UniProtKB/TrEMBL annotation:
The keyword NAD does not apply. One of its GO terms (molecular function) is riboflavin transmembrane transporter activity. It comes from the Bacteria. It is found in: Cell membrane. Pfam families: ECF_trnsprt. This is Riboflavin transporter. GO terms for cellular component: plasma membrane. It comes from Anaerofustis stercorihominis DSM 17244.
Length: 236
């Protein structure tokens, strides 16, 4: 009997090793399934939160659009608002695409009460989207206070360039529907005396004014983002 045990020992060792190996694979598979289900559940919860927060920030952005203030370096008919602020917060919290979606929803809602045939809303969307997308994509690379500052400055410049192009080719011609373009330029000249041409309106009014606007929104965002970010992400 002892000889049989010795003779069968290799078989026993093989069977034991096989049992251990299959047990390991079985347990590993169970753990992978648990992890996968947990990840899917977490991802699903995150997606729902992002959608809810995006809707909430879009509503706030839409309401802020009604609180207009005079545009810097511009005549009284040129107004601005801080409705890009919620979109910038969304871009910092969940990425640049979320910021662009908030801008899209806000301007889509404004179409129901537009008096520009949608042209003003399209221009506003392009300016706002360029602002929050630039800031969001820079901040996404490295989420630090310094990066956020760089992102906001760069985004303000990008928005100013986009605003300059849109003002030259879209918005100033749109204003000329209500008054001759010479009168529009003269109105800007009353604020900045050396403005005599449409190009000078862009260079010395539209671009600097939108840089100021972008920096104003950035300052407010930097002040409140740290406080609201954990709430938006469900960390509080």
């Amino acid at each position: 009997m002892k000889e049989d045990m010795i003779r069968n020992r290799p078989v026993v060792l093989v069977l034991r090793a096989f049992f251990k190996f299959t047990s390991y694979l079985f347990i590993r598979r169970i753990m992978e399934n648990i992890t996968e289900k947990t990840t899917q559940k977490t991802r699903s919860n995150l997606n729902v939160r992002v959608m809810v927060v995006t809707a909430m920030l879009s509503a706030v952005s839409f309401l802020l659009a009604f609180l207009e203030i005079p545009m810097p370096l511009s005549p009284s008919f040129a107004m601005m608002d801080l409705s890009d602020l919620p979109a910038l917060i969304g871009a910092f919290a969940f990425g640049p695409v979320t910021g662009v979606v908030i801008e899209l929803i806000k301007n889509g809602l404004q179409l129901f009460s537009t008096n520009t045939g949608g042209i003003g809303e399209l221009a506003n969307f392009l300016m706002g989207a360029s602002f929050v997308f630039t800031a969001g994509i820079i901040y996404k690379r490295r989420k630090t206070k310094k990066t956020a500052l760089i992102a906001c400055i760069a985004a303000s410049v990008v928005m100013a360039v986009v605003a300059g192009l849109l003002n030259y080719f879209v918005l100033l011609p749109m204003y000329s529907v209500f008054m001759p373009i010479d009168q529009v330029i003269a109105a800007f000249g009353e604020i900045i005396p050396f403005i005599k041409t449409k190009l000078e309106v862009i260079l010395f009014s539209a671009i600097p004014a939108n840089i100021i606007k972008g920096l104003m929104i950035s300052v407010f965002t930097m002040l409140i983002y740290k406080g609201v970010s954990p709430i938006l992400k469900g960390e509080k």
